[in-house]
Design brief:
The complex is a heterodimer of chains A (about 400) and B (about 475). By secondary structure, chain A is of the alpha+beta class. Chain A has 13 helices and 18 strands. Chain A folds into 2 domains: about 210 residues, Uridine Diphospho-n-acetylenolpyruvylglucosamine Reductase, domain 3 (2-Layer Sandwich), CATH 3.30.465.10; about 170 residues, Vanillyl-alcohol Oxidase, Chain A, domain 3. In chain A, the strands form 4 sheets. An 8-stranded antiparallel beta sheet of chain A has the order 14-11-13-12-16-17-15-18, sandwiched between helices. Chain A has a 5-stranded antiparallel beta sheet with strand order 4-5-9-7-8, with helices on both faces. A 3-stranded parallel beta sheet of chain A has the order 1-3-2, with helices on one face. Classes of the chains: A alpha+beta (about 400), B alpha+beta (about 475).
């Protein structure tokens, strides 16, 4: 699927990247924008003439710990940035899937968040500055290196989740935070998904702000709620108490669990690792229990993973193509009916032609998205057709 | 000022009256005068003012204006500090004084759906019984509206830890300048396709008009600790800010006030701030009750190490409210010092605070003006209040403001942190952005508003007004 036979370009700096894109535009050669290649499964991936490899655009550009900001070249691996920040006692509060290999540019372009969204928000909430090369080779800066900034339009938001279709992100500035003094995890098992969601909801409704509230379940009928709390020791301990109390109210008992970060990392990668079909829905919070119940009743239901504090639910389906397709249709429709949206995040190759990554639904404001796409990429060379917007 | 050639004067008023009804259109000279100013210093009289009852009215009006080449300028409470609601190129001002309802408080989903004319504080008051609040809390929150907050991407003291307006909006209904109604997002945290909500929030009415807003509601903190620390010098106070952050503590708010600001606040509000301090920090930690005292003690210890002469922790809600009343009433209190003020809104990396505050003092001396400082120190968001008495001083005062913004940009910062660019700083955008950067923003503008009728003359430098400002491109 990696555009076999395509040419490869690996620009070493912003200027070279701009030249490469401008030349491609002049020749109407389409580009796949690729960092570490950890998210080739996302979106409607079509063959392109050229692969633009961003991994030479690497390195931490600026980090002033006292300012709680960091500027980093987009091809830098997340793990490398994490290590650099850790040396200063800080961290970028994102827990993306494929964290060891993934690059910053890929994380931004794919809006790659994990369970920490519960406390810290998503990529859109951390990204405060972007340099991008538009589809005609224009280098555009947006935002800046300060944590608060309303000068001009916030183009950062447009690049997050655009899957490279609006521009090649070459440099990013993020807000960062001091590493928490304490971090602890716990889990509880429930017989019914509704009980797990009710227990999670009770914690989400306090000011505890846990880093993660994850729910995982499968056809065997056990639903696990995992919590991770970050902060000072006293509020972290109290947050686990709150979970224990809310679990008890649902007839379960919570236990401390040192392995929560590892479990979360695995759950986070359900889309990339799964051999089945994965539907990823973003739902209003209170719609999650009914959605989970409906998912668990589907033939072919294999696993459900929810970021219960954010309403992000992934469902894995396995089985015959016909069964899986029916289930996918039902889940895509259910997400829309309850006021959310959904997409296909992983598909067996056999279903690629029969099920589009974005389902049949058109996002609201699609005509505006198409105008933006045309304005930012007039020749339509950047990741043609990959995102829901074009 | 550029004024469009489209429909104006009596023919405009009568056409609007016919379109929308007499009770929704203001057109007499006396009525229009009230809408020629906002919270900033620039003025321009609208050709007409329309008071819509609903989205359909706004759509109808927009279609009409599109057909007749008339600019549309939305207005909430008019508390904006960059001239965002001023019809600098003429046209119709749309006042949201009649679209002030909370349409839905959705407790299970922790969302509220509101009309743009709703006052910020009224939302938090309405949802407080459910243990929830709307986080962005601009100092003008008793008056400013949610529509204005969306347009300006407003902040406030507590956004240090919890984010600004853009971090708390999940859905919008907007009316484009050709009258098209578009509903974006909803109650989920995100939707497929480009984040148009993210692009729209903070666009200052230049991409369209917001007619309905879905916001995230956040659980109220179980408890808070509010600390006042007084320092002999403003440098001592600003260095303490970096020391607190450097110690790994991110309070929910860190506000700084200099002696001149304190003097005004004490005269107006009587918040109990010490008058002999060169700099005062007002800080808050909140969340679960557990560990708050500990966090407060660590902050107090850092303040002492940095030379704090007075340390006070609010013991009661009443005392906390009084400390905050001083900060939130600070702009209004400037009337005690001078008949008028011009407030700037530059942002700097917070480690550069002491140095840039020194520059602000030099600018004051150079121009022979008094400047009071009261600002969001944790964010590095300065609010120098340049005091003046007479209209004739305004040009010099604006020049002093520009020099402060130049210092902010030179320190790696921004010309505006939360007040917006508007018509006040549009000529200064080239300080911070290259021609290509601005042209890229222009592509977004054209995608939403091809006719250029949505709040024209804002954000982007305009040839007619900006000729005198020729900055070397920063990048």
């Amino acid at each position: 699927m990696n555009a076999t036979g395509a040419q490869r370009m690996r620009p070493a700096d912003t200027a070279a990247c701009a030249r490469a894109v401008a030349e491609s535009a002049a020749d109407s050669r389409s580009l796949r924008i690729r960092g570490a290649g950890t998210k080739d499964y996302l979106g409607e991936v079509l063959p392109t003439d050229t692969v633009l490899d961003t991994t030479a655009l690497a390195g931490v550009v600026a980090h002033v710990p006292g300012d709680l900001t960091v500027t980093v070249a987009a091809g830098t691996r997340f793990a490398e940035l994490r290590a650099a920040l850790a040396n200063a006692g800080q961290f970028l509060p994102l827990d993306p899937p494929h964290a060891e290999a993934a690059t910053i540019g890929g994380i931004v372009a794919a809006n790659s968040t994990g369970f920490w969204r519960a406390r810290y928000g998503g990529v859109r909430d951390q990204l405060i500055g972007t340099t991008a090369v538009l589809g005609d080779g224009t280098v555009a800066h947006s935002g800046g290196r300060v944590v608060k900034n309303v000068a001009g339009y916030d183009l950062n938001k447009l690049f997050v989740g655009s899957l490279g279709t609006l521009g090649v992100v070459v440099e990013c500035t993020f807000k960062v935070l001091p590493r928490p003094a304490a971090s602890a995890g716990a889990h509880a098992r429930f017989a019914r998904s509704a009980e797990a969601f009710a227990a999670a909801d009770a914690v989400a409704r306090t000011s505890a702000r846990p880093a993660a509230l994850a729910i995982s379940g499968g056809p065997e009928g056990t639903w696990e709620l995992l919590i991770q709390a970050n902060g000072d020791a006293a509020p972290v301990a109290r947050t686990l108490d709150l979970l224990a109390k809310s679990a008890r109210a649902q007839g379960a008992s919570a236990q401390p669990h040192n392995g929560v970060p590892g479990v979360l990392a695995t759950l986070n990668e359900v889309s990339g690792r799964s051999d089945g079909l994965v539907i990823r829905a973003a739902l209003p919070l209170a719609a999650q229990p009914a959605f989970a119940t409906a998912a668990a009743r589907l033939e072919g239901f294999a696993q459900l993973v929810a970021d219960a504090a954010s309403g992000i639910v992934r469902v894995v389906l396995r089985g015959d193509d016909a069964v899986v397709l029916d289930g996918a249709d039902a889940l895509l429709a259910a997400a829309h009916v309850c006021g959310g949206s959904a997409r296909v995040e992983g598909r067996p190759d056999s279903l690629r032609a029969r099920l589009r990554a974005w389902g049949d639904a058109k996002p609201a404001g699609l005509f505006l998205m198409r105008r933006l796409k045309e304005a930012f990429d007039p020749r339509g060379i950047l990741e043609p057709g990959r995102s829901a917007a074009g | 000022m550029t004024v469009r050639a489209g429909l104006r004067g009596a023919p405009l008023i009568s056409a609007l009256t016919e379109l929308l009804g007499k009770d929704k259109v203001l057109g007499t000279r006396e009525d229009l005068l009230i809408y020629e100013y906002d919270g900033a210093v620039d003025t321009a009289t609208p050709d007409a003012v329309v008071l819509p009852n609903d989205t359909a009215d706004v759509a109808k009006l927009s279609r009409f204006c599109h057909q007749n080449d008339v600019p549309i300028v939305p207005r909430g409470a008019g508390t904006g500090l960059s001239g965002g609601a001023i019809p600098v190129e003429g046209g119709v001002v749309v006042s949201f004084a009649r679209m002030t309802r909370i349409l839905e408080i959705d407790v299970p989903n922790m969302r509220a759906v509101v009309q743009p004319g709703l006052v910020n504080l009224h939302l938090s008051t309405a949802v407080a019984p459910h243990g929830l609040h709307f986080v962005p809390d601009p100092s003008s929150q008793k008056a400013c509206t949610l529509g204005g907050n969306v347009a300006e991407n407003s902040g406030g003291p507590h956004t240090l830890a919890y984010g600004v307006t853009t971090n708390h909006v999940t859905g919008l209904e907007i009316v484009l300048s050709d009258g098209t109604v578009v509903r974006l997002g909803g109650k989920a945290v995100e939707y497929e396709g480009y984040d148009l909500i993210g692009a729209f929030v903070g666009s200052e009415g230049t991409l369209g008009i917001v007619t309905e807003i879905t916001v995230r509601l956040t659980p109220l903190p179980e408890d808070k600790r509010t600390i006042l620390a007084a320092f002999p010098t403003i440098d001592g106070a600003s260095e303490t800010v970096s020391a607190i952050i450097g110690a790994g503590i991110v309070p929910s708010a860190i506000e700084l006030m200099d002696q001149l600001a304190t003097e005004a606040v004490e005269a107006a509000v009587g918040a109990g701030y010490p008058l002999d301090a060169g700099g005062i920090l007002l800080m808050e930690v909140d969340g679960l009750r557990d560990g708050l005292d500990d966090a407060a003690e660590r902050i107090e210890a850092i303040c002492r190490d940095n030379g704090a002469t007075t340390l006070r922790r609010a013991a009661t809600t009443l005392e906390r409210d009084r400390l905050w009343a001083g900060r939130k009433g600070a702009f209004a209190a400037m009337g005690r010092l001078a008949p008028a003020y011009y407030v700037q809104d530059g942002v700097i990396p917070r480690t550069r605070l002491p140095e840039v505050l020194r520059t602000v003092r030099e600018v004051a001396q150079r121009h022979g003006v008094r400047i009071a400082n009261v600002f969001h120190a944790g964010d590095g968001n300065l609010h120098p209040l340049i005091l003046f008495a007479k209209e004739s001083e305004l040009e010099g005062v604006k020049q002093a403001g520009l020099e402060i913004l130049e210092a902010c940009v030179a320190a790696g910062g921004s010309i505006t942190g939360e007040h917006g660019v508007g018509m006040e700083k549009n000529c200064f955008m080239p300080l911070q952005f290259s021609a290509d950067d601005l042209a890229t923003m222009g592509r977004v503008k054209t995608a939403f508003d091809p006719a250029g009728l949505a709040n024209p003359g804002k954000i982007f430098p305009t040839p007619s007004r900006c000729r005198e400002f020729q900055f070397a491109a920063r990048r």
